[in-house]
Amino acid sequence: MTQALSLVAAVAVIALIAALLWAAPGGRPHDAVAPDDPETAEVSEADTEAAERATQQALDERPPVQLPEGIEALRDAAEEAARALPYEFTLMTFNVLGSNHTVPGGTAPGYAPGRQRAGWAADLLLRDQPDIVGFQELQRDQYAILRERLGDTWTFYTPQGPGAVQTTVMWRTEMWEPTWTSALATAFVAGPRVRPMVRLRHRTSLREIYLVNVHNSPGGRQSERDAAMRIQIPALNELRKDGIPVFFIGDLNERAGVFCTVTTRTDLYAARGGSRGTPCRPPSGRLRVDWIFGSGGVTFSGYREDRSAMVPRITDHAVISARVHVP
């Protein structure tokens, strides 16, 4: 019954987010496959305020973190037992280069059509076997190919609302079960978009994590990225109050600046390396716009920026992954 109520509440919150965003003054509906290309329109203050209200509503409605059923009276003992069950998983962020960019007249005409590239993306995922993936720029035709090729090995989650499918997340079905699924509303090109927030329970240890997957505005749209971070940073800090690991991944379309924002205003740190807290010292070497951040207490290893022969056929981004250890 509790899970059913949680599901009803999650659906209601996501529906509210979509309604707020679509009804915001100056806003307009965005189809799930609307291109992410920069447009002349700017995100209005009303759009941003609607996104902030919708995101706070989603956070307020999340159910409390639950200990394994039947042992509520033994909370302290259960937490101690859980701490004795460390586990590992592979986390990936993957901008697949949306099919809208590779159609005739698109911004990346030199690439194969989106459906063909989605098949290659499926080959890469089957090769690398990640346990959690956050996508960016995913379009409905590409999403359909991935679902067909990957079958039931991974579970897909796409929130309802403008731009939702573009930041779909998926997790290995035999490893994770969702205990809360919702959406974060964030400023983006020409209007707010929804981005997934999920809480997943590790099936073996029964311990939980939060995952937030985003795609922030590209190019010279710094004001929109700043507006997005004004929503995303408080959301991350709010999730951290539950005392479980939080992971923040995606195409942030920014390098050193966003690294410093995240690592100095939250307790998250980058799988890529660099400083934690202040003063900010970004990682050395060339920085990319795709990031994996995790909260204090977890450790990363095997960080990889994959641009091997298969990847440039699929996308204009590197495929970023890291091994996560939860002690």
N-to-C series of helices and strands = HHHEHEHEEEEEHEHEEEHE
Physical arrangement of strands within the biggest beta sheet: 3-4-2-1-12-11
Work out the radius of gyration. 19 Å
Identify the quaternary structure here.
Answer: single chain
With helices defined by DSSP (H or I, 4 residues minimum), what is the helix count? 8
Mean pLDDT, all residues: 87
CATH T-level fold name? Deoxyribonuclease I, Chain A
Q: What characterizes the major β-sheet?
A: 6 strands, mixed
CATH level-two architecture: 4-Layer Sandwich
Q: Calculate the terminal CA-CA distance, rounded to whole Å.
A: 32 Å
Structural class, judged by helices and strands?
alpha+beta
Total domain modules: 1
Write out the CATH superfamily name.
Answer: Endonuclease/exonuclease/phosphatase
Number of strands: 12
Outline: globular
Strand content: 25-35%
Low-confidence stretches: 1-11, 13-40
CATH class: Alpha Beta
Assign a percent range to the helix content: 25-40%
